[in-house]
Amino acid sequence: MLTVVSPGRGPEIGSGAWRRRLSLAAVTVGILVPGVQVSAAQDSASAPPERRRTEIGLIPLVGGDTDVGAGVGLLGTIAETASGYKPYLWAIEGAGFISFKRSDTGFVIPYQDYSVQWTAPQLLNKRLRIEVRPSYTKETTQRFYGLGNASPAPTGGDVPGRDFYGRTHPTLWVRLRYRVWDHFHAGVGASHTQNWLRIGPQSTLEQQMTTSDNPTVRQLLGAPSRHGVLLLEALFLWDTRDNEAVPEEGQIHQVRFRLSPVVAGDAMPYSYQQLNLSSRFYHSPIPDRLVLALRWVADMQFGRPPFYELARYDDTFALGGQNGVRGVPGQRYYGKIKLFANFEVRSQLVQFHLWNKQMTLGAAVFFDVGRAWADWTSHPELDGSGWGLKYGTGGGLRLQQGKTFVVRADLAWSPDARPVGAYVGAGQMF
Predict the structure, then answer these.
(1) Digit-coded pLDDT (tens) for 144-188
(2) Total domain count for the chain?
């Protein structure tokens, strides 16, 4: 028997680098190894055997977007399965992804991510899920034009020495999630990230860190240095979706709280808190043909977070990129408060079989909108006045395999786009 195994992620579980690499990666070819089957001992002569087997998969990856360029990678999995346990007893998944993008001087490598994740999803009477993941991520073309919702984009396009900075950050995190009852889950976790920053002396970021006339800007940006960040988190969620990977009906509501304490002075100098609230709704007015999907997110930071976290929510980018407001470039807007919403209409057009697998070709149209605020006090010089909404709209194609995997390709237009945002990724956006 030949089987593809890709460990499933729980709702909103997984680091941003992990989710971003998966969202960048579209599976194109599967190289599979037959499952190794081991029969379990029987309690009695009449009891049916509980069949166990080890399943191994190796999958090349290809994907990308207009922010980080095109990339390639490799995903490998080893999973132990048994009857009565879905999707598996445990799994180890290793992955690597690297992207390339053309620049004025040739090609650059904007993004690299390498990781190993161990998952045991059904411990303690199938109620406890544990995940452990070390990773290494290097990003060399992170944008910074300024703080706040009204930060102006430079005319004439990006200049790397002026508009980009680099960040290298290995991370180790551990997360536990427990199904308290029915659809209600609670979880805790901890992570440590070590950060190395590369900020050019003539960059906008360096100048605003050191010479800005606005004291709020200097306070929010801080000073560049090598540092660590320890995060402790608590998670509560209510999940009634009919399917985690391709939901058609149901809801999921999440509250995530994070705390970062100061440890050993300058070694871990950032003390801040982060509250993330999100809800997702799914309804299928025409079953198996049409799905209406809505998500809203509120992300709020308190205290003194590192500046790069001001552009992020739940470990990925908020007002920009393919996981937030599409069409807006990634890392476009920085602020302690970020509110945004996404609305999608997803349709299934035609079903067919390919390599003995059920495939569904579909399409989607979407509208994303949001806003950021630099700080909790009013700063019209940074955030502007009025609504100041940032938005993107567009559509794309979806190629679905069974009920567990989707490849999506989207084009998004926004007033911030140059001229459009293009994304190829794995999995529904939400």
Answers:
(1) 999 999 999 988 889 999 999 999 999 999 999 999 999 999 999
(2) 1
Bond before 152 cis per omega within 30 degrees:
no
Let me know: does 81 contact 56? Beta carbons within 8 Å: no
Which among 358, 276, 349 has a CA at the least distance from the CA of 315? 276
- Alpha carbon distance 119, 176 (integer Å): 10
* Strand 164-168, strand 184-199: pairing: antiparallel
CA 28 vs. chain centroid, Å, equals 20
Residue-wise burial string across 3-40, b where 16 or more C-beta atoms lie within 10 A, e elsewhere: ebbbbbbbbbbbbbbbbbbbbbbbbeebeeeebeeeee
CB 229 within 8 A of CB 193: yes
pLDDT on residue 13: 39
* 79, 54 contact by CB (below 8 A): yes
E strands, 66-127, where?
69-82, 90-103, 106-108, 111-122
Count of alpha carbons within 13 angstroms of residue 293, beta-carbon side: 20
**Tens digits of residue pLDDT in 74-121:** 999 999 988 888 788 999 999 999 999 988 778 899 999 999 999 999
Bridge partner residues of 187 (DSSP): 177, 235
Question: What burial letters (b/e) apply to 81-120, b meaning 16+ CB within 10 Å?
Answer: beeeeebbbbbebebbbbbebeeeeeebbbbbbbbebbbb
The CATH number for 364's domain is 2.40.160.50
Q: Which domain holds residue 372?
A: 16-40+48-426
Give 328-354 pLDDT, tens digit per residue.
999 999 999 999 999 999 999 999 988
Cα(96)–Cα(61) distance, rounded to whole angstroms?
A: 9
Residues 60/51, Cβ–Cβ less than 8 Å:
no
**Do the domain assignments include residue 4?**
no
Q: If you average pLDDT over residues 268-286, what whole number do you get?
A: 97
In a domain, 283, yes or no: yes
Please check whether residue 1 lies inside any domain of the structure: no
Give this prediction's pTM.
0.85
- Using alpha carbons only, what angle is made at residue 211 by residues 210 and 216, rounded to the nearest 5 degrees? 80
How far from the centroid of its chain's Cα atoms is residue 150's Cα? 25
Q: Quick check: 27 pLDDT over 70? A: no
User: What is the residue type of 20?
Assistant: R
Is 8 part of any domain? no
Nearest residue to 348 via CA among 290, 283, 411, 282: 290
